[in-house]
Amino acid sequence: MWGKRLFIAVFLIPPLLLYGLFVVSPYAQAFQISGTDWSGLSPSYEFIGLENFRRLLGDGYFWNALRHNGLLLLLLPVVTILLGLFFASMISVGGRADRVGVHGVRGSGFYRVVYFFPQVLSVAIIGVLWKEMYAPHTGMINGFLRAVGLDGLAMAWLGDPRFSFWCVLVVLIWMNVGFYVVLFSAAMQSIPRDLYEAALLDGASRVTTLVRITVPLVWDTIQVAWVYLAIIAIDGFAVVQIITDGGPSSSSDVVGLRLYKTAFADGQFGYASAIGVAMFFLTLTVAVMFLRVTRRDRVEL
Amino acid sequence: MAVLTRTRLETPSVSTPPPSPRPALLSHLFLTFWALITTLPLVWAVLSSFKSDEEILTSPWSLPSSLRWENWARAWSEAHIGRYFLNSAIVVTGALTLTMLLGAMAAYILARYPFRGSRIIYYAFVGGMMFPVFLALVPLFFVVRNLGLLGTLPGLTLVYAAYSLPFTVFFLTAFFRTLPTTVAEAAMVDGCGHYRLFFQVMLPMARPGLVSVGIFNFLFQWNQYVLPIVLMQGEGAEKKWVLAQGLTALAVNEGYRGDFSGLFAGMTIAMLPVIAGYLLFHRQVQSGLAAGQLR
Q1: pLDDT score, position B14
Q2: Is the minimum CB–CB distance between A125 and chain B shorter than 8 Å?
Q3: pTM of this prediction?
Q4: CB–CB of A140 and B270 under 8 A?
Q5: Taking the CB of residue A53, how many other CB atoms lie within 10 A of it?
């Protein structure tokens, strides 16, 4: 009996210590620090209650950043999921339909492997790569535009406040679509083929089968995809910091970058922690909201 | 769900739908288009790594006139990509070992040795998956600094391992529960102790689960960005930078110096091993990452 208890302790205490020290305690401290005016210059600070949050409400930079995260939250999941569903259904049921039934396209494995490339690359590599893609003279995008005679469209993409945010959005879509193609096409594999055959026999078009059969049957997966893309949209830090650093003139700023700069450039640790707490509640709200809105009766087969 | 509940209409068997090659062709057109969108930037980076700066400046789309491996050599040694690579390898090797060992130990207890409070511990681990890492950044910086581990490789190793634990424990607890109890009981009857049972029976049996979660953790740790830039700052820290950090610094520096070919070479060096590993194990990588997202 004692041997068993000792065994449990020996196996549980090291992971719990590591986890408590570096994960649980920082999370708990963040809430506490968000109620202080800690400036980082001195070790002393005072408890100021909700003052940081009041300041947050009147902080134009914060709202500007939050607006960008809001736009990402609207656009990133919608565009990524639509593209993901589109390509995934091409892979799974986009092949020919004949007497034997509905097929996937040939070479579906190849597409799945290639589409997944950005997922295994570090976000730093993707950021640096796209920064170079957008470069005004040496970049591939302007190079392409000049090569096809559209010199007028070639511009300093990241240096223009009108475009910088959209440049970031494009990168986020580019790096995520492939993963959801793979995820959705895996979910579509489990849909019985005869459903499609029956629908096609009844004269349904491909679009109808996508909307009426495929989407309802992979709804669970779409829901999960939505939550994860929303979490990516609330973050966005790495891509923005590497590609535009929030600029020019805050035109592509996001909340994560605000927090990072407030803490590690300005040394306002109390205020930065308040931004972190705001981000936490934002994430929580969005996750709960999406799960409620997208709740549907499961289709049982 | 009208479409789903409708019974299959008794259509006369003569009216089979005509074979239609068009959808397949159209599908391939769209699919190839996105395949190009995905790969062209990567191919462009690899090709540019062999060009001279002159070629990059004058024609971003042309092929390199010769294979200039010296760009790679310059990026590896002068731009320190080699050092950053080594740092990343050291940190991830240590962190992955620690994650898998501690994660498997905790998961095994939580799955197989129920005791009072074990549910609470389980939810404490799993709850870590819900919090955005940004919330922890400020306090984490000071926790690591107070331990004297700021800007050190062991410090980063411990932090990577700690932040990998929630998913690892969650995934492996579920996995250990699925393993048959009979084998464990038989081993106990034969006089096998708890420790030997874990290391010699349960761990080998859990190998498929360990591989999936290991791949997921490897990519999470190798591709980490925000943790190193917060924890590897301060004087002399640039010798301890990891690849992600070194590469972004390189992008800034080489941009000023106009050494574009060196930058592309550094990027290619950072990119190729992961892409090669992925091509070798793409099935496991895809399933491992999918399991990670569908938590």
Answers
A1: 43
A2: yes
A3: 0.90
A4: no
A5: 15
